[in-house]
Amino acid sequence: MARTIRCALREPFTARAWRELLYSLLSAPFALLGLAAVLATCLLGILSAGVILLPLLPLLLAVDRALAAAYRGMARSMLRLEIEVPPRPPRGRGIEGYLVRNLSDVASWRAVGYLAIRFPLGMVQFLLGFGWWLYTLLFLLYPLMWQLQEATSKHAGGDRAGLAVAGFRFDTWPRSLILVAFGVLVLLVWPWVQRLPLALDRWLMVRLLGPSASQRRLLQLEQTRELAITEAAATLRRIERNLHDGPQARIIALGMRLGRAESRLARGQAEKAAELIAEARAETREIVQELRELVSGIHPPALDSGLAAALTTLAARAPLPTTVRVAVTRRPQAAVETMLYFAAAELLANAAKHAEAKAAVIAVLESEAGLRLLVTDDGRGGATLDAAGSGLRGLAERVRVADGRLILDSPPGGPTTVTVELETVELETVESERR
Amino acid sequence: MRVVVAEDTAILRVGLVQLLEDEGHHVVAAVADGEQLLAAAAEFAPDAVVSDVRMPPTHTDEGLRAVIALRARQPALPVLIFSQYVETQYASRLLAQGSAGVGYLLKERVLDTRDFVDALERVAAGGTALDPEVVTQLVGASPARGTVDALSPREGEVLGLMAEGRSNAAVAARLVITERAVEKHVANIFLKLDLPVSAADHRRVLAVLRYLGA
Description:
Chain A is α+β, with helices and mostly antiparallel strands. In chain A, 66% of the residues lie in helices and 10% in strands. A five-stranded mixed β-sheet of chain A has the order 3-5-6-8-7, covered by helices on one side. In chain A, strands 1-2 form a two-stranded antiparallel sheet. Chain A has a two-stranded antiparallel ribbon with strand order 4-9. In chain A, helix 5 packs antiparallel against helix 7 (173-208) and helix 8 (213-266) crosses helix 12 (391-401). Chain B is an alpha/beta fold. In chain B, strand 4, helix 4 and strand 5 (102-106) form a beta-alpha-beta unit. Chain B starts with a strand and ends with a helix. The chains are: A alpha+beta, B alpha/beta. Chains A and B meet through helix 8 of A and helix 1 and helix 5 of B.
């Protein structure tokens, strides 16, 4: 309770309140600019029914978009509200392409809408934010002004100084201090009053200045597509490197051994040659093992018989005791199964390596809309998605590519549960034969 | 012969050292990247350097770049590049520094131990040892046209000796003609192979490559 009061008392002096004050102050000129832009746009829009002025309309829309961009900048710097820039439609050819591109750009018209609403809202913002604060200032400085007025009026020999309310004149020190106290009260309320129109403004900005739902989806698809491409390229590079540094190098080394054995034989050193050949044979076995591991890293053969089989194989090879529970009646597409398998493998490796876990559980459950993979361990927890270059973050991005999401629950001290949710996967019944 | 070996894959490095020591050569240093190669070459003054191409930190062309730097410092130092693939850009730059004492072999050549060691010895003696695969790719990458078929028998002979890494004087001695005559033949060869005017060494390399590729 005491803390709440302390916080409330401190509110007018927080950086946030002052940033919002600046925003409130700028609201008035920007509201006027916006009004001018909206009126000009509408006027020209009506006039361009005569077609001749139509090519000019995109220029005004560009002004509207520039104002929208200014609002996004203000929201970012003063309100700490990050709004994504809506994408521009693709460029077309010739004058027609130019017109179609600009006039059909939904984001521009939404910006016009925002500017229109923003005029009254901006005025209210200016009054409730900056006006209120200025009023507070007047009350707090009242004794000074009253003294000043008294000094000048005495000099001029005019009326009595001080503010009068219903015949009550604040012209003594105790009386003027009443006004100061009132000013303090008003100041304490100011940040909250200022925030009232802001709340509405924030709501509007996110909806009108940011990308629309379909644009957002498009952005997400673009991002995840890029991720998928980068990911595929990185995978190929990794496979190439593994082959180059592993089997390819080993086979050359094997050949070198055999070559040496051959020259030994030519020199009649049969014993040394036999030794080298035995080494070469051992090397061959290692190469086969390494290739097998590489292959299962590319596509685990067990995955062909289903996620359950693959995860059981994975658990059996895991460095920590792992229980697997797969309760699905239908199979997702092969790509989804592969993604889930590698997600489980990575999470299991994390549990063993970073969390120092003693045991882990892998579960695949069917939800109404799709699938859910859960990997739980009893390790020390405290994992985050934030760390740049963290494996979990990379995994979360890969899950996003498949339109899923990764939920991390890892309190310090454990246990850690990572959930991979795939809402919209197509499932086919397990019985149906695949491949 | 005292050799410095640069190869980042431990198993190949060890194999290479054993192979060379088996054949009676002395590996004075076996290192794993370009920086170490430069340091080892300066420290041990080897008779020859054998280097991989892809090495840490970037795993692209460190070895070749290190060797080019080495040859810029000591143009007479014999170097044998030993790689799993052909990198044409740096390979031709290396050859442009002079093809005497330069070798570029693909790693599978090492499987024939005797051939590999022969190639190294040839390079150490100032000769050239280029993998046929290297030649094909380099010639494919060079802009020159014209064919070796157009050469006269004598010019062909001269080019053949050039390909062995011999200087004009050595070619002259071998064919028992004047050095002046060899120079004339060489100029004709460049002309007939339609080799661009550039540093004489580079044209010589390209001419040799065309010969080897033919």
